[in-house]
Design a protein that fits this description.
This is tRNA (guanine(9)-N(1))-methyltransferase. It catalyses: guanosine(9) in tRNA + S-adenosyl-L-methionine = N(1)-methylguanosine(9) in tRNA + S-adenosyl-L-homocysteine + H(+). The chain is 51% helix and 8% strand. By secondary structure, it is an alpha/beta fold. The protein has a domain of 184 residues: Alpha/beta knot (3-Layer(aba) Sandwich). The strands form two sheets. It has a six-stranded parallel sheet with strand order 5-4-3-7-6-8, with helices on both faces. Helix 4 links the parallel strand 3 and strand 4. Helix 4 crosses helix 5 and helix 4 crosses helix 11. The radius of gyration is 24 Å and the shape is globular.
Length: 348
Amino acid sequence: MPESEEPRAADGDGEATVQTEEPYLNDENAPEKPLVSEAGAPPLSKNAQKKLAKMQRWEARKAEKKAQAKEQRKMEVERKRREWEERLAAMATEEEKEKLLESRRSLRKERMEQRSREKDEKRERLCGARENGQNVVVDLEFAHLMNPNEIHSLVQQIMYCYAVNGRCSSPAHLWLTGCSGEMDDQLQRIPGFDKWIIEKEAKSYIEALQDRKENLVYLTADSDNVLEELDLKKIYIIGGLVDRNRWKGITMKKAEEQGIQTAKLPIGNFMKMTSSQVLTVNQVLEILLKFLETRDWKTSFFAVIPQRKRCQGDAEENAEAEDTLEDDQKDDEKASKKKCVEEEPCNC
């Protein structure tokens, strides 16, 4: 189902190679062959190559903005440090200094206690989801079709998934299946990943959930079945593949070969997309979580799908809601790096 357009290092960073037929190996007049992407993907059309170049420029701008933001944060920390030192130096007596220091220590202690409470509450919610929550699988068996940059992009999406799920009042129970090789290596580099309250399986979902195969539902935009409602008995699968534009129909084909159900989100019933209904893994999960909370697909789509992916009429209709969404997305990115990586061991 999901395809990456958002943090998509996907079609951006894979270098194209030129295919040649054996008779032309040393022939200067050999006909030019179409460019292909890595991992033996089909040749890219001219339109696809233009999109690829556009995405590369977008990635470059994104990296530049990220560096600027990092430098801005560094300057802000330094400014606050100087202000604190100046304030401390302005104290006339040692007694005043001690009172100021004690006040700061007390505030820090309160913050630490608050964070501890939030961690405990989050752990309770996630452990409860293991027993009673909606099961959602991220299928990681496509790693061999992605280059390291694309795998890194998918790992970032998974971090966002865990962060947003942990903040939900009624979270889902997440599964990572087919977690091996380079994908597993990159996930293991996340500090605290081994303490995440999820199911991590090197086996495929078919093997890990073989006793519940009749309840497996692969979410793919290529399905003819529209998902009207979420069923707690069902286990919804999200394809972990960045830049599926190179591999059209791959998740649908996989599900059909395995004989499991498929469904697509009812996006077309509520909004028009500027292009294909392509979403990242974390966006699909956020939509499912929002629907579990509201039981309203339209609210869920407009709360999650970025304005740039919607047609003008839909975007204007929900402009005010989008302002709030952008702030939430920034908070999600910050929280995913600060909160999702330092979990305590789970005893549930």
